[in-house]
Design goal:
By secondary structure, this protein is of the alpha/beta class. About 30% of the residues lie in helices and about 15% in strands. It has a single domain, classed as 3-Layer(aba) Sandwich (Rossmann fold), CATH 3.40.50. The protein is built from ten helices and nine strands. The protein has a nine-stranded mixed sheet, sandwiched between helices.
Length: about 400
């Protein structure tokens, strides 16, 4: 016969099991079934191929069916070092299944490409890909509906392409969606992407930046600079957005620099066969090999970000903060909408509800006023230790009050 103490312990364990079994943590909202942010056509196969050769290729994605109308062209410009499209596979899949032609230009060879070369390389790859796909019955690109999504350093490249579109033989984009903008050189001697004269961007282009509430200082500074220097674009066509972390349930949502990553099997570049490098003609005059440069190698921070992107899972922040926002903004860009109206639309900022009906922290969106740039720092909230470096759960910190 167990002792009284043992019986008490067993009873407590049994009661705890009952409580824990009956009380499950709330889960975040799932992907919308229809409309912006939804998966689109989930039955048709997505074509995955490449145009170009090893070291100079553009990965191409679209549905394996001839569209009734030409497809909008979405160019996804990756963060520095994220050369493999697999890290954005979930977003690429969603964009393609919603009927877009998605281009992923491989403008960087890690260890060889310098930031100063990236914009030129991206422009060449995009232009060549559009030319090669012009008569393709399934691709059917509509260059008049061109959109740029840029993550981190890719945001700066997208803005440069928009500013120099006429010089490069490219159409002006309808929208530049700058996600966690970064990797921008502060001056001509600094490491990073050198911004072009952003005042040359077509005033009809929509400019939107979106940052998180973790590790946000650098992205905020980049957003301020972008919105300040795009002087030819009216304030009503510019928008600053912020997504928020939320640890109300499990898994928690954490809006870090890497939260736009959505790794998905099936989008690894190694599964797509590329044409080999052309053979070297022994009789051709030899050209000088480019000198090695330190800025062609990933920094420690860039290596960490790449690792986080590779490990990220697709969650509510992807569905509702990034994918849905882009879909809505792209429709507004085609329709010539005014972003001052969109920013005050509650449905645009809504992030849904946890399964216990508690609302997920909403997005904020602001258009710059005369003489202003972007919103101030996000409101603080006790959600555990900071900074959080990935989409891992945020542990809620319990606050205690001292009795007076």
């Amino acid at each position: 016969m167990p002792s009284r103490a043992v019986q008490t312990i067993l009873a407590a364990v049994a009661w705890g099991a009952v409580v824990l079994g009956g009380a499950q943590a709330a889960t975040p909202p799932a992907q919308p079934r229809t409309g912006p942010g939804s998966a689109g056509d989930t039955t048709t196969e997505v074509v995955k191929r490449a145009i170009g050769r090893t070291g100079a290729a553009t990965y191409v994605y679209h549905l394996a069916a001839a569209p009734a109308e030409p497809r909008s062209v979405v160019v996804l410009l990756h963060a520095w070092g994220a050369v493999n499209p697999v890290v954005y596979g979930g977003w690429i899949d969603q964009l393609a299944r919603r009927g877009n032609l998605v281009l992923y230009p491989g403008f960087q060879t890690v260890g060889r490409t310098r930031p100063v070369e990236a914009t030129d390389l991206a422009a060449t790859l995009i232009r060549d890909a559009l030319a090669a796909l012009a008569d393709d019955p399934q691709a059917r690109p509509d260059s008049s509906r061109l959109f740029y999504i840029g993550h981190s350093a890719g945001a700066a490249i997208g803005l440069n392409l928009a500013a120099t579109a006429q010089d490069r033989g490219l159409a002006s984009p309808r929208l530049v969606f700058a996600v966690m903008p970064g990797g921008i050189a502060s001056d001509e001697k600094s490491r990073g992407i050198q911004l072009a004269d952003l005042s040359r961007i077509d005033p009809a282009t929509l400019i939107t930046t979106i940052v998180g509430d973790r590790e946000f200082q650098a992205a905020d500074r980049a957003s301020r600079r972008i919105l300040r220097e795009t002087t030819n674009v009216p304030a009503s066509r510019k928008l600053f957005m912020r997504s928020f972390s939320d640890d109300h349930g499990f898994p928690a949502l954490t809006a870090t620099l890497a939260s736009a990553g959505s790794a998905k099997d099936g989008y690894d570049s190694s599964t797509i066969k590329l044409a080999p490098e052309p053979p070297i003609d022994p009789k051709a005059p030899r050209t000088a090999r480019p000198r090695w440069s330190a800025d062609s190698v990933l920094t420690g921070e860039q290596t960490v970000l790449l690792g986080q992107l590779q490990r990220n899972v697709t969650d509510t922040l992807d569905y509702l903060a990034y994918w849905r926002s882009f879909d809505i903004l792209a429709a507004a860009a085609v329709g010539g909408g005014d972003l001052t109206l969109l920013r005050s639309d509650p449905s645009f900022l809504d992030m849904g509800r946890w399964t216990d009906s508690w609302p997920v922290r909403r997005l904020i969106a602001e258009t710059p006023k005369s003489g202003e740039t972007v919103a101030s720092a996000p409101p603080t909230r006790a959600v555990g230790p900071a900074p959080i470096q990935s989409k891992q759960p945020v542990v809620r910190r319990r606050e205690t009050r001292q009795a007076r």
